[in-house]
């Protein structure tokens, strides 16, 4: 365990915060051993993975930061139509998605090029282009920090909802995910790709691609390549720009509330969810409040996508204040409270 370690390189917003203690976890056994130490029992703690979804709200974290660094992919069950993969939580998410595509496995191809790791997929239930991670997560395995035991949670146990899970709520800071088991589908001529998202259909039109006429073996890599190109054109390069990517969740409101809003703002985009709520575009709400063109203390929204917060300030206060100003503007104009997707850590 190290002392007084800067976490600037461990969070994608590049906030300059120092941790009192820092511990990198290499395997489950060493984690279980560490949980029995005096240092662990006498200090508060924070689990920091890739850092793409975290904003520290202080210059000094007076506790222990655990940084898991465990990788690996293992087939644990196979049928004629499905494959169950147990994946270590530190595996890079995009590399894992490409692994499934290269092996002719379906159900997460639309989630390509999303920043983070396998842990992120379970905690944030990542969503993009009409797919979400919970559709393929079979179970989540990890260490319960209250009992110091290994625990398995089924898909139902995880309480998945839109970009949300039990790991952001009841088990927040109480559970360290070590593995996620995915149930993936093998190549099947009857598989229905999700291509109705506007950006995808526009890409096909602009590139004269007749997707429905392609063979099943051509569709899988082509669709993921299309989404990858769309995302590269819309999103910043995290190796060059400090960002947390989607800073806010897309809000969900009732149909009557949507109808009331659209009488005043007919340009508002919305679509009906499976829960019969109307999901609005947080990026559009932010843009209509003109925050796409406002910079305060070297913090701003990305010019290509108003939902993406861009930071050039190492001070946490600048990011937190900017985000609050955006929330206040959207609430004042549209009566909607934007909820951060980024997790605030004190």
Report on this structure:
The protein has 9 helices and 21 strands. With 346 residues, it is α+β, with helices and mostly antiparallel strands. The chain folds into 3 domains: 2-68, Uridine Diphospho-n-acetylenolpyruvylglucosamine Reductase, domain 2 (2-Layer Sandwich); 73-191, Uridine Diphospho-n-acetylenolpyruvylglucosamine Reductase, domain 3; 242-345, UDP-N-acetylenolpyruvoylglucosamine reductase, C-terminal domain (Uridine Diphospho-n-acetylenolpyruvylglucosamine Reductase, domain 1), CATH 3.90.78. Strands 6, 7, 8, 11, 12 and 13 form a 6-stranded antiparallel sheet that branches. A 4-stranded mixed sheet has the order 1-2-5-3. Helix 5 (198-206) packs across helix 6. The longest helix has 19 residues, at 216-234. The chain starts with a strand and ends with a strand. The model has no long low-confidence stretch (mean pLDDT 92).
What's the quick description here?
This protein is an alpha+beta fold and 346 residues long.
Describe how the helices and strands are arranged.
Elements: E1 2-6, E2 18-25, H1 28-34, H2 38-42, E3 45-47, E4 54-56, E5 60-68, E6 73-78, E7 82-88, H3 93-102, E8 105-106, H4 118-123, E9 127-128, E10 131-132, E11 137-144, E12 149-154, E13 175-186, H5 198-206, H6 216-234, E14 242-246, E15 252-253, H7 255-264, E16 270-272, E17 278-280, H8 282-288, E18 295-296, E19 299-302, E20 305-311, H9 316-334, E21 343-345
Parallel strand pairs: 2-5, 3-5, 4-21
Antiparallel strand pairs: 1-2, 6-7, 7-13, 8-13, 9-10, 11-12, 11-13, 14-20, 15-17, 16-17, 18-19, 19-20
